[in-house]
């Protein structure tokens, strides 16, 4: 088994950032804000955030802000909670939260809370426990959790809990590791983890590890590097990470690297992309792989960035 090819991954991310007219960039145009978060957080975990011109990125981010206060995936697109959290996270990486009118962003977010405590992702109204996480994480980073009804938000998330200990996208929705990350993360940030049955959920989550060492997102599904984030971060937040075989998972992630051109894929031999490169590196960071910055499992930002936000106001 090889090692993490840090320099190759840095090169890969910088090249994707530059190739704005590549196939991947065109297809993902509306998601560019998320791409910026995935790529830049990976660079920071690898200790190479300074390889990029931060002023250029910050100027572009601010051009994606809508008059409502929310952020879009790219200039001229519509705002959504998905892009608003990514924008705030990237500004936090660069220690530039001060360029924001935090109350304006917070008003956009709290305006999306519904009577039952749930959140819509944007003005069109789709409801999903993912959006509860996005709202809670973002308001937490902005020190504006008091702008929403936290008690109702927590009760809604608790209503998405299933008899297997997991969480779905709405009440009654099937448990899925991605949704579990969102619900556990939101409960962790609001100090409400007592709503989780840690042993029951820990059991469901550790059963996601398959023979190859990789993790899947639901029973009977294929393993995928992104679940190294969704499953592992949840296990850490509920103190049950020792229930999986960490060495085998490290090997699975390293096997998904393109050791020639950099980047990480969803499973061995597939094509690499920025999304799975981020989840592979973030997963290795959670596994305490040497040489990587530590990442906070709830806020999905490097621990030093989170400490700067909460302890050095
Ligand atoms: C800040 C890290 C971070 C996230 C923001 C958007 C979001 C919050 C979370 C998304 C959670 C989620 C639902 C992730 C799942 C993504 C995924 C791989 C879905 C695929 O599901 P299936 O069922 O594929 O199509 P499987 O793997 O089950 O075959
Ligand atoms: Zn995936």
From TrEMBL:
Its cofactor is Zn(2+). It is an enzyme of class 2 (transferase). The keyword Transferase applies. One of its GO terms (molecular function) is metal ion binding. The keyword tRNA processing does not apply. Keywords: Metal-binding, Prenyltransferase, Repeat, Transferase, Zinc. One of its GO terms (biological process) is gametophyte development. Residues 5-300 form the Prenyltransferase alpha-alpha toroid domain. GO terms for cellular component: Rab-protein geranylgeranyltransferase complex. It holds the Pfam family Prenyltrans. It catalyses: geranylgeranyl diphosphate + L-cysteinyl-[protein] = S-geranylgeranyl-L-cysteinyl-[protein] + diphosphate. Its EC number is 2.5.1.60. It comes from the Eukaryota. Transmembrane segments: none annotated. Binds 1 zinc ion per subunit. Heterotrimer composed of the alpha subunit RGTA, the beta subunit RGTB and REP; within this trimer, RGTA and RGTB form the catalytic component, while REP mediates peptide substrate binding. Belongs to the protein prenyltransferase subunit beta family. Catalyzes the transfer of a geranylgeranyl moiety from geranylgeranyl diphosphate to both cysteines of proteins with the C-terminal sequence -XXCC, -XCXC and -CCXX. Required for male fertility and root tip growth. This is Geranylgeranyl transferase type-2 subunit beta. It comes from Salix viminalis (Common osier). The lineage of its organism: Eukaryota, Viridiplantae, Streptophyta, Embryophyta, Tracheophyta.
């Amino acid at each position: 088994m090889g090692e993490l090819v840090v320099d190759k991954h840095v090169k890969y991310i910088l090249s994707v950032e530059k190739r704005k007219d590549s196939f991947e960039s065109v297809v993902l145009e509306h998601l560019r804000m998320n791409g910026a978060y995935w790529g830049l957080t990976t660079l920071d975990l690898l200790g190479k955030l300074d390889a990029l011109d931060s002023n250029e990125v910050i100027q572009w981010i601010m051009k994606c802000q809508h008059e409502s206060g929310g952020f879009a995936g790219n200039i001229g697109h519509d705002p959504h909670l998905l892009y608003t959290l990514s924008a705030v996270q990237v500004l936090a990486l660069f220690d530039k939260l001060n360029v924001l009118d935090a109350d304006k962003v917070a008003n956009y977010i709290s305006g999306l809370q519904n009577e039952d405590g749930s959140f819509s992702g944007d003005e069109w109204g789709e409801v999903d426990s993912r959006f509860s996480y996005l709202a809670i994480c973002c308001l937490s980073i902005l020190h504006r959790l008091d702008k929403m009804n936290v008690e109702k938000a927590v009760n809604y998330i608790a209503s998405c809990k299933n008899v297997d200990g997991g969480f779905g996208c709405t009440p009654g929705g099937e448990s899925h590791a991605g949704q579990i990350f969102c619900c556990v993360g939101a409960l962790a940030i609001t100090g409400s983890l007592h709503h989780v049955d840690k042993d029951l959920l820990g059991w469901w989550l550790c059963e996601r590890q398959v023979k190859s060492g990789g993790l899947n997102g639901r029973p009977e599904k294929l393993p995928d590097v992104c679940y190294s984030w969704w499953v592992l971060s949840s296990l850490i937040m509920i103190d049950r990470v020792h229930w999986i075989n960490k060495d085998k998972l490290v090997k699975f992630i390293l096997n998904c690297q393109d050791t020639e051109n950099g980047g990480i894929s969803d499973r061995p031999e597939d094509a690499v992309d920025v999304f799975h490169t981020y989840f592979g590196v973030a997963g290795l960071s959670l596994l305490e792989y040497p040489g990587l910055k530590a990442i906070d499992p709830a806020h999905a930002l490097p621990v030093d960035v989170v400490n700067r936000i909460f302890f050095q106001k």
